[in-house]
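[Automated response] Your request has been received and processed.

Submitted sequence:
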Amino acid sequence: MTYRNPYIILGIPFGSSREDANVAFARKARALRRLGPAGRPQMLDLTWALNQVDEGISHPEAAMEIYRIPADPDAFTVTGNGVLAPPAETLPRRYGPGDAALDALRRAAAIEYLRYLVLLRASQIHAPAP
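Generated structure:
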């Protein structure tokens, strides 16, 4: 049993066409050529993977020797609440009713804004000339 998956090495979905494999090979090979001799082992893997895809699988739906990731692509699609997307949880209030505190804050903000407006207007008024 082989532990290498040509589709994962090339970065393409299981059962992709030869054309898709060629495009993926060219993209990855271009990056490996820049590495020079250090990229040679990975280039051999890419070539092997391209050859495996080229040979093809006669019945992809029955092929069990090549693992597939993900086995079910819809498994990663979130459609509502669940383990990976829990519903929002409403927390209880810790400090009691906030209406009085909110009113006090509004009054303080209004007084501060009124003070700002009075000072602004006062800076615009000039004393009359004698």
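Summary generated for your ticket: The domain at 6-76 is CATH 1.10.287 (Helix Hairpins). Residues 99-124 form the longest helix (26 residues).
If you did not submit this request, please reply to this message.
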